[in-house]
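This part of the workshop introduces the protein records we will be handling. Getting from the letters to the tokens is the skill we practise here. The record below serves as our worked example for the rest of this section.

…
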Amino acid sequence: MATLLYKLGLFSARNAWKVIVAWIVLLAITTGLALSLGGKLTTTMSISGVPSQMVVDKLQTTFPDASRGSGQVVFFKESGSFTDADRAAITAALEEVEKLPEVSEAINPFTVQAEISDGEKEILDGKAELADAEKKIADGQAELVDAEAEIADGESQIAEGLKTLAATKKDLESKLAQVNAGLKQMQDAGLPASAQAELLGNKAQLEGGLAEVERQTAIAIASRDEIAAGKIEIADARDEIVSGIDEIAQAKIDLAIGEKLLAATKNYTVVSSDENTALATIRFDKRGTELEEG
């Protein structure tokens, strides 16, 4: 093999112009064939059957965002830190980049850095809000227990009151019947009104007592209806508490995820500590192998 290469090199050196002309002719023939057969030049590169290509193709189908190409742009200031004007200029430049064809997103490093910096505070605020929410849930549960006890006591008192009113009504009606019977006997005997005065007075008192019993019964029934409505409100409040407990549980999960993400980005930065270097990320609509140079 070495001898063959040596002879080929020696021949090329001795016949340099002939070799160059031969290569030019070969290139012209190849180009002509490509154009005549409908060939098309492309910057896309793919190798079917290769595991890495299979992964890229799979991502393109199931998770397009993960297969898109991306690039990074470094903004550097030679002296001093970025000023507000510098930040505004970089932001404006990235906004213009985002308008370019095939660019899907230009990620502003200052926005990302601010989100990272605010992450710890948001986690702490989230923990405080969760603790406050749990306390409110606990207080609400205690209030519901007290309310349910009051409802039960109220129901018992009203039931007992209605029972007493019913017994009183029955007794008054019995006495009124006796008075009416006595008055009828007096009237049948032809006794004067003066003789009936006492029974008439008793009758008026009994009828007044019955009217009061009816009034108290109506009040008790109205109170019983209010208690029934209160029980519905308590049931609704308990459902809200259960829903609140579920929301708190989900919030705890989200908070735990947030803490893990915060821990993962603890040493990650896209703006240097001296704020004279910033790293922006440009994401494209196409895969990296499909992007054209320009």
